[in-house]
Amino acid sequence: MTVGFSFLYLSAAFVAGGVGGYAALLLGFPLPWLLGAMFASFVFGVLIPRSGDGNDGNRNDNNGKNDRPVFPPFLRRLALVVIGLYLGSQFARAEDLISAAKTAPLSIAAVLVCTAASGVLAFVFLLRFLRLDAVTAYCAAVPGGLSPAVGLAAAHNADAGTVALMHSVRVAMVVWIAPFAAGVLPGEAAGGMFAGMFLPQPAAGVMSAGDALTAVLVAAAAMALGSKLGAVGGSLLPALVLSSAASYAGRMVGALPLAPLAMAMIVLGVYAGLSLAGLRRGAAGKVGIAGFLMGTMMMGVAALFAFALSAATGLPSAPLWLALAPGGIGEMALTAMELNASPHWVLLHHFARITALLLISPFILRAIIRREKKRNGR
């Protein structure tokens, strides 16, 4: 059974996330509203567990299909739309994409090879270390987003609870580590995009009322398209495409205010924090450790590929590592924006990775299921 968070509980979690984000901003953290909100909402969820979230000892596991409260999908889709708007609004200023286009095929190929290598290593690790069944091990080892992986697990009768836990641990690791790791690699700009958030915007950079209306209409259209098409990355891709077209056509010119982007980051941070806080305590032992080890291994493989590709192409290693890192689309796009590390280019590679996984995973899972049936004599 799926239940939702109460309005009061979710509101309190967002207040905690906002306070945590502001504290992280004052402390000079990268991606302050995302990381601060994630940490604060995680602490909030642990200290004040929601009934049925798995921390009260009364959870009905139902063979891995958990019944803990679910974060409202609408809010996460809206946050991804806002991120897409910001990325697309920079389209007219993304001349570096044109010069980088000639290296994109090579780097996308590297992303696919890196994904396969880290996925195979993680798959074997989970089979040996956790003794998972092959279908659950594959769904947990896929270096894609949380929602597609859990969807694959549910569609093939795998242990969706274990898959959700391992992906949550891995994505949380990447979200925390990526801004700091990429910040010391060549290719980033110093300072964060929120450094002057509470300072007045230059008059020349303020978006006009007509362009602001265009942004609102683009956001509404992206929400509708993302919901109907089930686009990769939720509604982020439609928002990115539509806002890029509007920006390139001169219909959405000027700087979007940073406040909506900060709120989108708080939404994603609270989503990640409550997801981790709601995991049952019994599963947070061996499975959580395995998720940590798997995430460390995947990030290490991505770093090796990034350095090798940087040496071969001369491209800076910061955007390469962000393009190869096994994180979510929204989080990696935000990190690239924060570090000024070619966010459009990074996003292109993550879309390529997740699209390839969505296309090939059903065939691999069918082969695994056939092999398991033969092994069991069925």
Q: What does the model show?
A:
With 378 residues, the chain is mainly alpha-helical. 69% of the residues lie in helices and 0% in strands. It has helices spanning 7-26, 32-47, 73-89, 96-100, 104-129, 134-141, 146-155, 160-183, 209-229, 236-248, 258-277, 286-313, 317-324, 329-339, 343-375. Helix 7 (146-155) runs antiparallel to helix 8 and helix 8 packs antiparallel against helix 13 (317-324). It is globular, with a radius of gyration of 20 Å.
Properties at a glance:
globular, about 375 residues, mainly alpha, Na+/H+ antiporter like fold, about 70% helix
Short description:
The protein has 378 residues and is mostly helical. It is 69% helix and 0% strand.
Strand proportion, as a percent range, falls in under 5%
Q: Give the total of beta strands.
A: 0
Segments where pLDDT lies below 50 for 5+ residues?
Answer: 54-68, 188-204
N-to-C SSE string, H for helix and E for strand: HHHHHHHHHHHHHHH
Mean of all residue-level pLDDT scores? 75
CATH topology: Na+/H+ antiporter like fold
What is the count of helical runs?
Answer: 15
How many domains? 1
Judging by the overall fold, what is the CATH architecture? Up-down Bundle
CATH class: Mainly Alpha
- The chain-level structural class is mainly alpha
The biggest sheet amounts to:
none
Percentage of residues in helical conformation: 55-70%
Terminal Cα span: 31 Å
What does the radius of gyration come to? Answer: 20 Å
Shape estimate: globular
